[in-house]
Design a protein that fits this description.
Layout (H helix, E strand, L loop, with lengths): L1 H24 L1 H37 L5 H22 L1 H30 L2 H4 L5 H31 L4 H17 L1 H9 L7 H40 L4 H11 L5 H17 L1 H26 L8 H50 L1
Helix pairs in contact: 2-3, 2-7, 2-9, 4-6, 4-11, 8-9, 9-10, 9-12, 9-13, 10-11, 11-12
Length: 364
């Protein structure tokens, strides 16, 4: 019995490896599939991140206010269009200028920080805590090297983040249409997906799809609301201390804070660096604002909006983020947690279906 099971598992693994190897030999077949995925990933991602926060509002208008679902969606579209028009007139010129200025001035940022560090080295109070001159020079050269790496990474990813939605025509043409039909056919879509399962597993499939939907809705909708509130707090604080590139830094923080644990650190690094370039005191105040905003988010906003934290062990999250970052950069880190949640629920339910079928066949 054990030997037969061992050989079956070994044959299954060998078959999977053989399929993967044959797939590498006919790579040209998968090129159109990769092109399709790369072309549609941005509109699908934007649609999902808008769909989950808007769905409860559409349901509320339909059930409580007795507004037809299609009319509810159109009303929300009008509000979104008005908000975008206002942002394009007020916020977008500032954001565009800050991005252009940041990318152009990136080579000068390292020199500015080195000057600030050198000024601190000549401070009589700080000098008594510094090592000897040789060691201090080595530390300064290493700092220069690290800062060059950080600013190169920042400028590359800021540019890529904005080119991320550079195909404006594709986004404008597809996102509203996909979002409309997702919101309109919300229940019908899940019912059609359930029909893909065999008849005896449709109840299990319905439960699986419901759990995936609830998990993604809780994560995406909750994170959008929490990040928006966090960014409002950060922006108010940055305006108070007159921090340069405040809107750009808030924009980065909104997206980076979708990444659990690491996102808060990643979003705080450019804030601290930009603040320190202005002056050491500005750097300290910018860090204080980030810490206070994060404390409000973690202790007040998240318990109210989320209720429970992610049902994923922190070690698992760190590993997933490392894998996602290696495979897809920032985009990979943004997508890896939702994908993991969906895959985990799918595997658990498929295993339950397998056990259910096996027990049924044993009784027969």
């Amino acid at each position: 019995m054990i030997q037969n099971r061992f050989f079956r598992i070994g044959a299954g693994i060998a078959l999977v490896l053989l399929i993967i190897y044959l797939g590498t030999l006919v790579d040209f077949i998968f090129v159109p599939i990769r092109s399709l995925i790369s072309l549609t990933i941005v509109p699908l991602l934007i649609t999902a991140f808008i769909y989950y926060p808007l769905r409860p509002l559409v349901n509320w208008l339909e059930r409580k206010r007795k507004v037809k679902r299609s009319m509810s969606i159109l009303m929300i579209y009008v509000v979104i269009i008005l908000a975008l028009v206002i942002f394009s007139m007020i916020g977008w010129p500032t954001l565009r200028d800050q991005v252009t200025s940041f990318v152009q001035n990136t080579p000068q940022f390292t020199n500015s920080i080195i000057k600030q560090v050198e000024a601190l080295q000549h401070n009589s109070f700080i000098q008594q805590y510094l090592p000897d001159q040789g060691t201090s020079d080595d530390m300064l050269s290493k700092l220069t090297e690290y800062l060059n790496t950080v600013f190169t990474w920042l400028s590359d990813h800021i540019s890529s983040m904005f080119s991320f939605v550079s195909n404006v025509v594709l986004v404008i043409a597809t996102v509203p249409i996909m979002l409309y039909y997702l919101l309109k056919d919300d229940k019908k879509l899940s019912e059609r997906l359930v029909l893909l399962f065999p008849q005896k597993f449709r109840e299990d499939g319905k439960l699986m799809l419901s759990e995936i939907d609830d998990s993604l809705s809780s994560f995406i909708a909750g994170r959008v609301i929490v990040n928006f509130a966090l960014c409002v707090l950060l922006y108010i604080g940055f305006l108070i201390i007159d921090l340069p590139y405040s809107l750009l830094l808030v924009f980065l923080a909104f997206f980076l804070n979708f990444i659990p644990y690491i996102g808060a650190i990643l979003s705080a690094v450019p804030v601290a660096i930009v603040g320190f370039i202005e002056s050491p005191m500005m750097g300290i105040w910018s860090i204080v604002i980030v810490i206070v905003a994060q404390l409000i988010q973690n202790n007040l906003l998240e318990p109210i909006i989320f209720g429970n934290q992610l049902d994923i062990h922190p070690f698992t999250i760190i590993v997933l983020l490392l894998v996602g970052g290696d495979m897809g950069g920032i985009l990979g880190m943004l997508l890896v947690i939702p994908i993991y949640m969906a895959v985990k629920i799918t595997i658990v339910h498929i295993y339950r279906m397998y056990i259910k079928q096996k027990i049924g066949s044993d009784f027969q």
